[in-house]
Amino acid sequence: MGVINVTPDSFSDGGRFDRPEAAVRQAARMLAAGADVLDLGGQSTRPGALELDADQEWRRLAPALNAILQAHPQALLSIDTFHPAVAERALAAGAHWINNVRGVADQAMVPVVAASGCPYVLMHSRGSSQAMDGLATYGNVTLEVRDALLEATDQALAAGVAADQLIWDPGLGFAKTTAQNLELLRQLDLLVAEGFPVLIGASRKRFIGDVLDQPRPQARLWGTAAVGGQAIAKGARILRVHDVGPMVQTARMADALWR
Fold first, then answer.
1. Do 183 and 226 contact (CB within 8 A), yes or no?
2. CATH architecture type of domain 2-258
3. Which residues are part of the catalytic machinery?
C-alpha cells in the first residue's frame, strides 16, 4: 500500500503531493514500482496535528482523488479518513477502500462501510491527534490492542459489515511509545491468529527514528525495511509505505524466506 498525502503538514512528505498533478505523478511512480493499493489522505494524523472538519478535508482530497481515478482507472484507491461524510463521497466518486485511523474508537464509519461492502481497515488508536501521546498507558499492549480490535470487530459485524471486508491495523505510533510499538511487532502473531488480514503502517515513523537516532523521516528507509521483514515473518499481509520500490523488494524477499 503506497501512501500519498495531499497535505501541507504530514510528518514525512507534507506539501510534496498536495497539487493534483503531483499526486498523479506519484501514483504513477508507485504503481510502476509495484504498489497494489494507493492510500490517499487529505489530512495529517501525526501526533499533534491540527484536525480538519469533513468539508475541509474533502475540498483538499477531491481534486487529487478525481485526477488519480482519471489517470489510473485500474488502480485500487484507499481513502485515509475518519470522517464518514468524506468516506461516502469518496466511495461515490470511485474509491475502493476506507482506511480509518479511529476505527476502534469511533463506530460512526460502520454504516457507510456496511452499505458499500468495501474493504475496511480498522485501526487501533486512542484519542485525537493532539491527545494521543498522553494515552499510551497499557498493562499488556498486545493483548489490549487485540481485545479492542475484537470488540470493534464484533460491533461492526453486528451492524452489517461482512467479516471478509475487515483488515486489522494495530496502529503503530498511535498512542503507543517506542517500547510498546516494538512489543506489538514482536507479538504480532497474536493478532494474526484471530484470522483477519493485518496491515502494518510503520513507514518512516518516530519510533524507528528513536531506535536509529535518526531525526529525518526520509532517512529511516532501512529501519522501515527491518520492520517490514518482521511484520511479514509474523504473518502481516499488507505493508503501508512511502518508499514503494525498496519495500516491494523487502516484501518479496521476506515472502521467500517466511511464507
1. no
2. Alpha-Beta Barrel (3.20)
3. 205, 240
